[in-house]
Specification:
alpha/beta; Rossmann fold; five-stranded parallel β-sheet; 38% helix; 10 helices; six-stranded mixed β-sheet
Amino acid sequence: MRVLVTRPRFDAARTAERLAALRHRAMIDPVIEIEALPFEKLIGNFSAIAFTSANAVRVASTHDAIKKIPVFAVGTRTAEVARECGFENVGVAAGDVNALGEMLTAELPSGAHIVHLAGEDRAGDLPGHLVRNGITVETKVVYRARVSKSLASETVQAFRDGRIDTVLHYSERSAAAFVRLADAAGISDDIRKTRHLCLSSAVAAPLKLVGVPPEIAAAPEEAALFDLIGS
């Protein structure tokens, strides 16, 4: 099967390796790229760090001093990256911001002070959830996601030729960017002829708006997306 991976390049490369191991052919064309922002030393006594994306983990990992602070990660992949980057104490939630908020509320005492290291654009309201439960949150933006200017010419031609069987979508923003870039390339009709696999209902929303029928993973994890490929 020929699969288009639209996620940022670092994660896309890892996904492509997994697809190859399953005998699928991957084409990588990130519709969003990650730009690290200046990240100053944390000042204060924090009970924990909350990560809602692996990209934030990679940026934060340049500061060795924070790696002893307990980490709470939004999902399995973010937790894996945290461990790979040297964070010593990593807890993992069930894959979305609400689950992460519930985990932090259960694990930390009222009055705890945490830092949320995150991207410029964030899904959900983690600080609001925690503040209502007596936990104070300081959010620091450590990266921004920039939408690509266009799809690669190879991607556009592959859609026109019917050479892409499946597209993987990992975030609502990247799905919306893909739809806009496809329209700009004049392939809106072509993308409707392939399967679109989405990590969640929120990710699928931009596709539904333009009449592209998505398939939604049973859980917000890449393994569940891969289950759809094999179905």
